[in-house]
Amino acid sequence: MCATQLVGKMEVLVPMAGLINVEAELARLKKEAGKAEGEIKRLQGKLGNEKFVANAPADVVEKEKEKLAAAEQSLATLSEQMEKIASM
After folding, report:
1. The whole model's pTM is what?
2. In this structure, are strands 10-15 and 2-7 parallel, antiparallel, or unpaired?
Protein backbone atom coordinates (compact mmCIF):
# COMPACT_ATOMS: atom_id res chain seq x y z
CA MET A 1 0.00 0.00 0.00
CA CYS A 2 1.22 3.46 -0.89
CA ALA A 3 0.13 6.88 0.25
CA THR A 4 -0.49 9.23 -2.63
CA GLN A 5 -0.17 12.99 -2.65
CA LEU A 6 -0.77 15.32 -5.57
CA VAL A 7 2.03 17.86 -5.96
CA GLY A 8 1.07 20.11 -8.83
CA LYS A 9 0.46 17.72 -11.70
CA MET A 10 2.73 15.06 -10.22
CA GLU A 11 1.48 12.22 -8.05
CA VAL A 12 3.90 11.14 -5.30
CA LEU A 13 3.64 7.56 -4.03
CA VAL A 14 5.15 6.58 -0.67
CA PRO A 15 5.08 2.98 0.60
CA MET A 16 3.06 3.11 3.81
CA ALA A 17 2.03 -0.43 4.75
CA GLY A 18 2.18 -0.61 8.53
CA LEU A 19 3.58 2.91 8.84
CA ILE A 20 0.51 5.14 8.97
CA ASN A 21 -2.38 5.82 11.26
CA VAL A 22 -5.26 4.84 8.98
CA GLU A 23 -7.84 6.91 10.87
CA ALA A 24 -5.69 10.05 10.79
CA GLU A 25 -4.94 9.62 7.09
CA LEU A 26 -8.63 9.13 6.30
CA ALA A 27 -9.46 12.27 8.28
CA ARG A 28 -6.84 14.23 6.34
CA LEU A 29 -8.13 12.96 3.01
CA LYS A 30 -11.74 13.74 3.97
CA LYS A 31 -10.69 17.29 4.87
CA GLU A 32 -8.98 17.72 1.49
CA ALA A 33 -12.02 16.23 -0.27
CA GLY A 34 -14.26 18.71 1.54
CA LYS A 35 -12.11 21.58 0.29
CA ALA A 36 -12.26 20.20 -3.26
CA GLU A 37 -16.05 19.86 -3.01
CA GLY A 38 -16.30 23.47 -1.84
CA GLU A 39 -14.14 24.64 -4.74
CA ILE A 40 -16.26 22.63 -7.19
CA LYS A 41 -19.46 24.15 -5.80
CA ARG A 42 -17.97 27.67 -5.98
CA LEU A 43 -16.78 27.23 -9.57
CA GLN A 44 -20.05 25.63 -10.68
CA GLY A 45 -21.91 28.61 -9.22
CA LYS A 46 -19.62 31.05 -10.96
CA LEU A 47 -19.86 29.26 -14.30
CA GLY A 48 -23.62 28.87 -13.86
CA ASN A 49 -23.97 32.64 -13.50
CA GLU A 50 -25.12 33.86 -16.92
CA LYS A 51 -23.87 37.40 -16.24
CA PHE A 52 -20.36 36.15 -15.45
CA VAL A 53 -20.18 33.95 -18.53
CA ALA A 54 -21.61 36.68 -20.78
CA ASN A 55 -19.47 39.54 -19.45
CA ALA A 56 -16.14 37.93 -18.54
CA PRO A 57 -13.42 37.63 -21.16
CA ALA A 58 -13.39 34.23 -22.86
CA ASP A 59 -9.94 33.40 -21.46
CA VAL A 60 -11.16 34.02 -17.89
CA VAL A 61 -14.17 31.76 -18.41
CA GLU A 62 -11.90 29.09 -19.90
CA LYS A 63 -9.52 29.30 -16.92
CA GLU A 64 -12.44 28.84 -14.54
CA LYS A 65 -13.56 25.78 -16.52
CA GLU A 66 -10.02 24.40 -16.28
CA LYS A 67 -10.01 25.02 -12.52
CA LEU A 68 -13.32 23.16 -12.26
CA ALA A 69 -11.98 20.18 -14.21
CA ALA A 70 -8.85 20.12 -12.02
CA ALA A 71 -10.92 20.24 -8.82
CA GLU A 72 -13.15 17.42 -10.07
CA GLN A 73 -10.09 15.32 -10.92
CA SER A 74 -8.58 16.06 -7.53
CA LEU A 75 -11.79 14.96 -5.80
CA ALA A 76 -11.86 11.73 -7.81
CA THR A 77 -8.23 11.01 -6.88
CA LEU A 78 -8.91 11.74 -3.21
CA SER A 79 -11.91 9.39 -3.27
CA GLU A 80 -9.73 6.63 -4.73
CA GLN A 81 -7.11 7.25 -2.05
CA MET A 82 -9.73 7.06 0.70
CA GLU A 83 -10.96 3.72 -0.65
CA LYS A 84 -7.40 2.34 -0.73
CA ILE A 85 -6.58 3.56 2.78
CA ALA A 86 -9.87 2.26 4.18
CA SER A 87 -9.10 -1.20 2.81
CA MET A 88 -5.72 -1.39 4.60
Report:
1. 0.77
2. antiparallel
